[in-house]
Design goal:
With 317 residues, the chain is of the alpha+beta class. Helix content is 21%, strand content 21%. The protein is built from ten helices and 13 strands. The protein has helices at 22-33, 39-48, 74-77, 96-99, 123-132, 161-167, 189-192, 206-210, 262-266, 309-312, and strands at 61-62, 108-113, 119-122, 137-144, 149-159, 175-180, 201-205, 215-220, 223-224, 234-236, 249-255, 290-293, 299-301. The strands form two sheets. Strands 1, 4, 5, 8, 9, 10, 12 and 13 form an eight-stranded mixed beta sheet that branches. Strands 3-2-11-6-7 form a five-stranded mixed beta sheet. It is globular, with a radius of gyration of 19 Å. Mean pLDDT is 88; it is low at 1-44. The chain binds ligand MTE and molybdenum atom. Molybdenum atom is lined by residues 82, 145-147, 242-243.
């Protein structure tokens, strides 16, 4: 046997991830922020991206969480978005006319409910604190939307379990509820979809939230999160369908009751609370056996738990 070091099957060296074209990306990022000629704002953004002790937060320290093959090109991950607060057309979300009024700094975040040490403050302070503690890392994950498109992205952020360590949930806390901002002045989708049960909410069981894979992303492709991808912070739960990965979070609440989620309220048979990726269970209106990779349109087999069975299958015994 030539393999002496045992690595999980998703581990591959950094060289397997496509290097990005930095200058193009910078322009993309600025466009995404909705400003023209905003070089002063760029330096502000980069300053905010640096922890107090001057360690750069982005891209974060390299982790063992990697995916074989190339990452999805950045322009696809940043330009093909589900963010219904803004628009239902994926390629329109990032346009300045749609997202230009979205203010993500300052950003008030509350972490409360059944916890010993509730936290409230600005999201950037929480991120800087996680940086000072050495918790900011980069993870490449598969991401699978329930609509059967998928991508592979490098996310920067910290394990969701670090939030649990921070606030110390009480024994009675069985679920975590996440809530997105609700401000119709900043986003046109609230008005366009006025029958939706806003704000967007999501939830996890507390043991799911504590799983090593559950992640709070504050950046992607080596930079702070673009607005259309959920700035300033979102979850990434890679073994579940994409709608469980909630963007632009304003509140994280620990509770003893299974939270109502926006999608479950709209259509419980199609978007149940658990929503683990499973190729054997079709959506009522389409098969989940395969998925379409963004940018190449390649059809690939969908994997149980999106390929993360080794990490999460024990949660569902
Ligand atoms: N607040 C909020 N979070 C959200 C959504 C949304 O519409 N609003 N869409 C979800 C869905 S369906 C998917 S597939 C992912 C898409 O994330 P991305 O645009 O960064 O790829 O965000 C999820 N989180
Ligand atoms: Mo999705």
């Amino acid at each position: 046997m030539a393999n002496i070091i045992c690595r999980p099957d998703w581990h591959l060296p950094e060289s397997a991830v496509t290097p990005e074209a930095v200058y193009n990306d910078r322009r993309t990022f600025l466009r995404a922020m909705g400003f023209a000629g905003a070089s002063a704002l760029l330096s502000d953004a980069l300053q905010a991206a640096t922890a107090k002790d001057n360690l750069p937060l982005y891209p974060g320290k390299k982790s063992n969480y990697q995916v074989a093959g190339k990452a999805t090109p950045e322009e696809w991950a940043l330009g093909y978005n589900n963010f219904y607060e803004f628009h239902t057309q994926k390629h329109l979300v990032r346009h300045p006319q749609i997202i230009g009024k979205f203010v993500t700094e300052p950003w008030r975040l509350k972490i409360d409910g059944l916890v010993d040490k509730p936290w409230a403050g600005d999201a950037q302070d929480l991120i800087a604190d996680m940086g000072k503690k050495g918790f900011i890392e980069e993870r490449v994950y598969r991401f699978r939307c329930v609509e059967a498109w998928s991508m592979v992205c490098p996310w920067t952020g910290f394990a969701l379990s670090k939030i649990l360590d921070l606030v110390v949930p009480k024994k009675t806390a069985k679920f975590v509820r996440f809530e997105t901002f609700f401000d119709p002045k900043m986003a046109p989708g609230f008005q366009a979809l006025r029958n939706y049960p806003w704000p967007y909410t999501e939830g996890l069981r507390i043991d799911e939230a504590a799983n090593e894979l559950a992640f709070v992303a504050t950046g992607m492709y080596g930079k702070p999160l673009p607005k259309q991808n959920g700035a300033p912070l979102r979850t990434v739960v890679p073994w579940k369908y994409g709608y469980k990965s909630i963007k632009s979070i304003v509140r994280i609440e620990f509770t003893d009751k299974q939270p109502k989620t926006l999608w479950e309220s709209l259509s419980p048979e199609e978007y149940p609370f658990e929503s683990n990726v499973n190729p054997a269970v079709p959506h009522p209106r389409w098969s989940q056996a395969t998925e379409r990779r963004l940018s190449t349109d390649e059809r690939v087999a969908t994997l149980k738990y999106n390929g993360y069975a080794a990490q999460v299958a024990a949660l569902y015994k």
